[in-house]
Specification:
Strand 4, helix 3 and strand 5 form a beta-alpha-beta unit. The protein has 140 residues and is α+β, with helices and mostly antiparallel strands. The protein is built from 4 helices and 5 strands; from the N terminus they run E-H-H-E-E-E-H-E-H.
Length: 140
Amino acid sequence: MIRYVEQKISVEDYLELRLKVGWKRLTDRQASMAIENALTMFTAYDGDKLVGMGRLVGDAAVVVYIQDLIVLPEYRCHGVGGHLVELLKKKAASFAEEGEEIMLCLMCAKGREEFYERHNFIARPTDYLGPGMIQYIRHV
């Protein structure tokens, strides 16, 4: 049975999860800052084995982003990612006070759009929202 915990994980665990799913390598400093500056993180465990995580970043007032939703390949298609998304959505909603609306955003990997649409996210662009955009800045 999968157990879900709201907690920040170690740099080593974060980097190991990223490595196991083939994501871009980060430095220890980057990983440490990412964890430290997250609004919150939710983790998924199978016994003592860390099998997934997701974190929220943002200002907790106007905009919050789901960042780094990671589920080990052998645990995909078993509801782990969906449960993490729902926990993150609930936490994001908790930041808004009565009468307020908070924007919950994400940028998903190509081909993962259907997963997020099942959790009521809308793909951009739409008639009134432009496309999401990104820029990588490298220190040289």
